[in-house]
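User: Sequence in, structure out. Go.
Assistant: Echoing your sequence, followed by the structure tokens.
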Amino acid sequence: MSGRLAETQARIAVAAKAAERDPAEVHLIAVSKTFGAPQILPVLQAGHRLFGENRVQEAKAKWPELKAQFPDIRLHLIGPLQSNKAKEAVELFDAIHSIDRPKIARAVAEEMRKQGKRLELFLQVNTGEEPQKAGVAPRELPALLALCRDELGLEIAGLMCIPPLEEEPALRFAFLTKLAADNALSGLSMGMSDDFETAVAFGATHVRVGSAIFGARPKP
């Protein structure tokens, strides 16, 4: 695990330098969904502290114990969030990348207020407007962002996307970069194991990398 982690970090550094960027601007989220503590521990022992999970319930089952051992862990929710899981999500996570509609924004804002916590928040954009995929439609992004900023008082760090599988990801990364610039946002959560170097070239500040670090995921 630690070897694959180091290789991924090196590839990010090369991609950043090729784009005339500081590699320190790119945060590597090690996506540990479906992996348990035995697979995660070597990555923690190698010094990595930034991890991503897709499901609140799965994260709740394994991360409190790991956080007790490594208190400086930063945990990011990168999968879809249901409003009835907002309380647990705010309790457990340090960042949420998947706010995509007013109901979720309101639930997260309310829980952050109740718990006295401030999370790093990203709005997920459905850049390909795929009906089966989560994310706000690009044309509806300004309204959702205004709701978050003006009515709910949320500080939005940036935008997140998962490009359509059948398309060249560079097109969607470029589009998300433009949307962020148009809306005065600096954070860009984009790029996974197969395309994170391309994402870095287009300005990604957070890349979400799982299998390149942990290997093939276990079969369900």
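User: And one key feature?
Assistant: The first strand starts at residue 27 and ends at 31.
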